[in-house]
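re: that complex we talked abt at group meeting.

here r the seqs, copy pasted straight from the sheet so there may be weird spacing, ignore it
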Amino acid sequence: MITRQFGIPVTSPGAILRREKDLGTPLGLETAETTQHGGLVSDKIIVQLIEDWLRLHGASGFVFDGFPRTLPQAESLESILKRLRTALDLAIWLEVSEQTVRDRISARLQCGGCGFTTSSSSAKFAERPICPYCDGPLVRRMDDDASVLQTRLQEFNSKTQPLASFYDKMSILHKIDGNRDRDAVFADISRRIEQKSPA
Ligand SMILES: [Zn+2]
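got the structure back, here u go
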């Protein structure tokens, strides 16, 4: 799945993994099992999938959503980019409180057909939980249980938090207040990306 909302291809490990699962590849089925129980897919697998994707789609710019999430992933990404003779321009850090995370997760809906994610607080979908893109059913995600959330928060603190200083040292870290509504956050992200895009 590729979206081009910034004029350049955007992907996430989730989108790549969902595609593998939909295709029924052994890798896709194995990783679906892992994420369903709140675990993270191994760095080795994620990095391989990202490198394959970059070679296919990354020639004239790219945006990763939710990658890298760990220091080893970030270091592997640096090696991949070096091989491809390119570099990151920007690392956007969305700062959100734990309460914001809880509120949003408890309201999150996802399309069973195409993976589109929205919120049940979005009135339009609360009344009629049907995907605007493929007419699939919008349902609560399997991995949204409280215990899974706790595991995710712990993994964030131990594995993802160190990335802030990693990218700060490279002078490409930009922090954005992610507690605001999605339009305000999206506008901020778009502005940052446009400032870095070649004219
Ligand atoms: Zn859909």
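couple things i noticed - Residues 43-57 form the longest helix (15 residues). Residues 111, 113-114, 116, 131, 133-134, 136 surround zinc ion (CB under 6 Å).
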